[in-house]
Design goal:
Strand order of the largest sheet: 22-23-1-24
Largest sheet: 4 strands, mixed
Number of strands: 24
Distance between the termini: 6 Å
Structural class: alpha/beta
Amino acid sequence: MDKFLIRGGRQLHGEVVISGAKNAALPEMCAALLTEEPVHLQNVPRLQDVATMRRLFDSMGVATETHGERGGMSFRAAKPVNPEAPYELVKTMRASVLVLGPLLARFGRARVSLPGGCGIGSRPVDQHIKGLQAMGAGIVVEHGYMVASLPQGRKRLTGARITTDMVTVTGTENLMMAAALAEGETILENAAQEPEIADLAEMLIRMGAQIDGHGGSRIRIQGVDRLRGCTHEVVADRIETGTFLCAVAATGGDVLLRHGRADHLDAVIDKLRDAGVTVTSVADGIRVQSPGAASGPLKAQNFRTTEYPGFPTDMQAQFMALNCIAQGPSLVTETIFENRFQHVNELVRLGANIQIDGKVAMVEGVPRLSGATVMATDLRASASLVIAGLLADGETRVDRIYHLDRGYDQMEVKLRGIGADIERVK
């Protein structure tokens, strides 16, 4: 099993090229199921989750191909397609549930495994089911699978006004894709507003979909008879961007994040600036400059995770690592997932001073962290431990980095390119 070996204490300088967003690439791969024509994606990140989705497509009979140096992938879902997502693949990647809406909309039936448990907390799919049922689908859950079909005599889903009980990113994506081929108009109320949803909508529009309001809480979709193939470039990964922003802020240095989008990270960047970090939008990227803790402590920041455009839950662990060596106390409140403080005990092993009270972590900044062996528990926890290792005196070993490989494209290579002492070992 691979591990990271990190020798901390180095400032970071140079340039990092930000990869395409995992949370955009996966639903956009699923959108290829909506047409029999070829779909070409560019800037697809090289991640374990992308490989898993490709294996799922292979099992369905969808033709896939990798090409070019810019993360190019092509898909063709020409008939026949097996509209089933088995448990063996879905259990390793919850985003597999995103095939449900496209399969049902195009083929009239789908059999998709329930995703099962998640290390950071509950992610129910009941909102997906509720929305598709409102569009006329019959869905039963049996033997661990969602079995969906259209009523006898109907060839298409029917547009509907759908108000989800909670803001759900994958639910919004699933329903938007299904509505693109439905008969009539669908209005999604309480829709998620993440940039990855807007990017998916732009891809669907290139395919011939009629969508308005994406990026807001109300999305209007006018269904069409068929969609065509397209070429689309996956938007840059805002969470990878934010992770490198926190890494440079904490360790010190001057780094250009090529392709990073500052407009997708307003809440995080505001907190970094308040902490004493200089963050500047430049042509095709973001420049981050920080004196680092060694040149005088940064200022600790309180923050509360919430739905976009608020502070993202996927950045909570990384910013907490920065707060560990910042000056003063800070309160970190997690409102999205109930088990997303699993990295805290590992940060404490490195010398951090953190106490947990329910949904709130109380962090008291310390002058330094000390290297130790730590264990990653989920994707973003892995990133926080890497940042802490870059800060710590001596040597830090991060075990179970397969979590990190699900969402970061060659992180250790990119970090070495800007001066970090990090290596992947068996």
